[in-house]
Amino acid sequence: GINAEYGGTTWHSMSTQELDFGALVEQERAAAQAAQVPLKWTSASDVYNGLQRQPQDGGSRMLLFDLRPYPETRLARIRGAETIGVMNGEVRVRGEGGAPERFICSGNVIGIVYDVRSEKDDPSPMLVEAAELLASSGMQKVMCLAGGYTAFAQRYGCMCIGEDFNEEHVQEAGRIWAAEILVGRLYLGAATVANRCVCDALGIETILDLTENGITLADEEAAAPGEGSLHCVHLPAHADPESRLPVLDGLKVFEESDGAVLVCCEDGIRKGPTMAVAISMVVKKLSHLNGMAFVMKRKRDASPDWYLQLQELEYTCLLYTSDAADEEDSVDLGGRRIIKKKNK
């Protein structure tokens, strides 16, 4: 360096070095990412189940925010989603004709934001910014939809509306559908959802009917046995919790079904959820309490009442992997055989 003294003040001139602007940009980007709150993610299945909740079910409201261009969302979007954009550091909702309008949030709200793919490993800068801005707007929680609109539409096209869909499809999308308990495998609802439209859209091949009198399928819905047919198994169950639910028979029906199973009862609140808890306990290896929490998280109005029978499934049934179990007194679920202990 060169030292020079002017009027009693010494100035130090350092050797000239070429700055690496690329490295500086990377450093600033890394620092900004480190300062950001990590994004929270949710699944397409959770969003699908959220669309089935009603105000009377309690809990937070779910609002969907679509970051795709307005012309795209007009053609196809998730039911109830708002098209948004980020302008000058603020979120704007696309109103009538796509005009940006100020966004105001109030109440107990969980926001779900997404773009075309919403990649967890490499989220777009706009998705990150939108999530941060929505979080600062007063929402209780903001989450990003893993896989974005593309993943949701591929799995749950029945919940999408827009100009690309006919009126009949839009009307069906607005109804209450079955809750998804085990992704692509187990669904739960009232008897009113046990129809060909719902079952075809969700890939359901077997209906496990727990109503007392049995549901009635139209002739065109109950096709002849074979590919594409809808198989209905009626296991009548009384609403009295003092009665017994046909739990082992229901587990056997689930195990023997190649496709997804819909469990239904009159209101979809008590008998059906109890059966869904039993199936979840076995498939997910859960206690009866964790099984109840698992099902009730996915269907908020569920109220399984057969506690003692669920406890029996947990404490008096032996769960293990065995090929030597007695076929007549057991149900084999993917290699995990449930054997009911016999009283001595």
What does this structure look like?
With 344 residues, the chain is α/β, with parallel strands linked by helices. The N and C termini lie far apart (96 Å). Helix 9 crosses helix 10 and helix 9 packs parallel to helix 11. It is 31% helix and 25% strand. The N terminus is likely disordered. The protein has eleven helices and 19 strands. The strands form five sheets. It has a seven-stranded mixed β-sheet. A five-stranded mixed β-sheet has the order 12-13-16-14-15, with helices on both faces. The protein has a three-stranded antiparallel β-sheet with strand order 17-19-18. The longest helix is centred in the first third of the chain and has 15 residues.
SSE blueprint and pairings:
Blueprint: E1 2-6, E2 9-13, H1 21-35, E3 41-42, H2 44-51, E4 61-66, H3 70-75, E5 77-78, E6 82-87, E7 90-94, E8 100-102, E9 109-114, H4 125-135, E10 141-145, H5 148-155, E11 160-161, H6 167-173, E12 179-182, E13 186-190, H7 196-202, E14 204-209, E15 231-234, H8 247-256, E16 260-265, H9 271-284, H10 288-298, H11 307-315, E17 317-321, E18 330-333, E19 336-340
Parallel strand pairs: 3-10, 4-6, 4-9, 9-10, 13-16, 14-15, 14-16
Antiparallel strand pairs: 1-2, 5-11, 6-7, 7-8, 12-13, 17-19, 18-19
Helix pairs in contact: 9-10, 9-11
